Amino acid sequence: MMTQPRGGRHYIRITNTRKKSDFAACLRWLASLYKHATKIHLVMDHLTTHKKSSLTEAYDEIEGRRLWERFIPHYTPQTRQLIEAGRDCNFCDATMLPRNDPLRDA
């Protein structure tokens, strides 16, 4: 699923698999929608196919690199990173926990 929140657009592309070639085809299609954009911000998770090599394997090296350079990738934090970040900066205040929670007195 791809969204353009400020533009109010939502795109859904369904594939039978989650292969690198599917991801590459999706990015090519997305880039074709925004031909005049110099850069496209791409927010995605850490699926193993969500990287530059998916494009360079699906297309030739030059075409894959050219297409990847149209995007500015932003990866969402992994769950473990969120937990550790919260632990490091006291993200969870003890007063937010139920009274019987063992972490409240930790």
Description:
The protein is an alpha+beta fold and 106 residues long. It has two domains: 2-75, no CATH class; 78-106, no CATH class. It is 37% helix and 15% strand. It has four helices and four strands; from the N terminus they run E-E-H-E-H-H-E-H. The protein has helices spanning 20-33, 52-58, 61-68, 79-88; strands at residues 2-4, 9-11, 40-44, 71-75. The strands form two sheets. Strands 1-2 form a two-stranded antiparallel sheet. A hairpin with a 4-residue loop joins strand 1 (2-4) and strand 2 (9-11). The longest helix has 14 residues, at 20-33. The relative contact order is 0.12. Residues 90-96 have low confidence and may be disordered.
Characterize this entry briefly.
The chain is α+β, with helices and mostly antiparallel strands and 106 residues long.
The geometry reads as globular
What multimeric state do the chains show?
single chain
Helices and strands, in N-to-C order? EEHEHHEH
Strand content: 15-25%
**How many domain modules?**
2
How many beta-strand runs? Answer: 4
Jot down its keywords:
single chain; two-stranded antiparallel ribbon; 106 residues; 2 domains; alpha+beta
Blueprint of the fold:
Layout: E1 2-4, E2 9-11, H1 20-33, E3 40-44, H2 52-58, H3 61-68, E4 71-75, H4 79-88
Parallel strand pairs: 3-4
Antiparallel strand pairs: 1-2
